[in-house]
Each structure stands twice: as structure tokens, then as C-alpha cells.
Write a structure and sequence with these properties.
By secondary structure, the chain is α/β, with parallel strands linked by helices. About 25% of the residues lie in helices and about 25% in strands. β6 and β7 (about 115-125) form a beta hairpin. The two termini are about 25 Å apart.
Length: about 190
């Protein structure tokens, strides 16, 4: 049985995607499948088919449609979306999966920091504001202080989020392909 599916949309950022994939392969938990969503331009130069499952999408596919293809192909009880360019750190998945012990939790936001400034948070989730604005939770905060804002999170960030498969299965649509990247992520989180 697969506990966790990791979906990485390459989106023609092959060098960034390969760094992300290497960090995931080095730190992935047991009973995990890794799905990489690529267009026809990717030729698998490292012969990873078998260790990694490739899902092909049309050239020019949007982030939302790429993520949907990966989510539909995934088999894990939980699904983690990790954007090309992101780096998985030690125990990144285990900490998030513990939150799902509460059966009411449908999604878990990852704390995202930039490699060149690991002391400050880029995002610990997204909040949808009145008037349609989006706010990155914890943006600019010191990493040890940002988790006090958890009650304001509406959605994980598009760069890194965990989802419970049964919650996704209750939705008529996954990531909305009519919306842009972050908007489709918040739309999914709110639903």
C-alpha cells in the first residue's frame, strides 16, 4: 500500500525539477510513490522510469492541469504537491503526515523558506482576504514564530502542500483550470 504520493510538476523547468527530484529521492519516506508530471519534451536522461512514475501532459499544459494529472494518477492515502525548484528537507513528509492523525484535517501547509534565507518564512500557507487578495501566512517572519498563525490558513501554498485523498475524492473538480496558479490552489483549499 502507498501511504504518500508525491507529485512534482516539471513545467519545462527541467534543471529545477531535477534538483527537487534528487532531494525527494534522498529523503522520501517508505511506502511512497513519486510522480513527475512532464510534457513531451522530457526524455528521462537518467533512466528513472520505474523508480519514478512519469505522467505526460500536452505541451504548454497549465500548472493546474499538470497538478490534476498528477493527482488523478496518484494512489497514496495522502498526496504531496512539490513544485520544481523546491527542496525536500529531512523529515519534511513525516511532520506533515502526523497532522493527518486528526481525521478532520483535509490539507496541511508546508513551511516554505528560501535556501538563501532559511531564517525567514516565505509562506506557511495562504489566506484568502476580503476583496480577493491573497496573503502568504508568516511571510517574512522568523521561522520559530510563524506557526502561531495556523488558524488563518485557508490553503497550502502551490509550491508545497499535502492533501488527504478522501477529501480530494469528494470534490467535483480538483485544481480549477480556469484560474491562475495561486488562485486555483486557494480555491481548492477553500472547497
Amino acid at each position: 500500500m502507498t501511504d504518500l504520493s508525491i507529485v512534482i510538476p516539471a513545467q519545462n523547468k527541467f534543471e529545477a525539477f531535477e534538483r527537487t527530484l534528487l532531494s525527494v529521492l534522498e529523503r522520501s519516506p517508505k511506502r511512497c510513490e513519486i510522480i513527475v508530471v512532464v510534457d513531451n519534451a522530457y526524455a528521462d536522461p537518467y533512466d528513472l522510469d520505474g523508480e519514478v512514475r512519469f505522467v505526460r501532459v500536452d505541451d504548454g499544459a497549465t500548472l493546474a492541469s499538470s497538478l490534476n494529472a498528477g493527482l488523478i494518477a496518484s494512489r497514496g492515502e495522502f498526496v504531496h504537491v512539490l513544485a520544481a525548484g523546491a527542496t525536500a528537507t529531512d523529515d519534511w513528509a513525516q511532520n506533515a503526515l502526523r497532522r493527518f492523525e486528526n481525521s478532520q484535517v483535509a490539507a496541511v501547509a508546508s513551511r516554505i523558506v528560501y535556501a538563501d534565507d532559511p531564517v525567514h518564512v516565505h509562506s506557511a500557507g495562504i489566506h484568502y482576504c476580503r476583496g480577493g487578495g491573497l496573503k502568504f501566512i508568516g511571510h517574512g517572519d522568523a521561522t520559530e514564530h510563524c506557526m502561531s498563525l495556523l488558524e488563518t490558513i485557508d490553503s497550502p501554498h502551490a509550491l508545497a502542500g499535502f492533501y488527504r485523498r478522501t477529501a480530494l475524492g469528494q470534490l467535483r473538480e480538483l485544481f480549477c483550470t480556469r484560474l491562475g496558479g495561486l488562485s486555483s490552489t486557494v480555491d481548492l483549499g477553500l472547497r
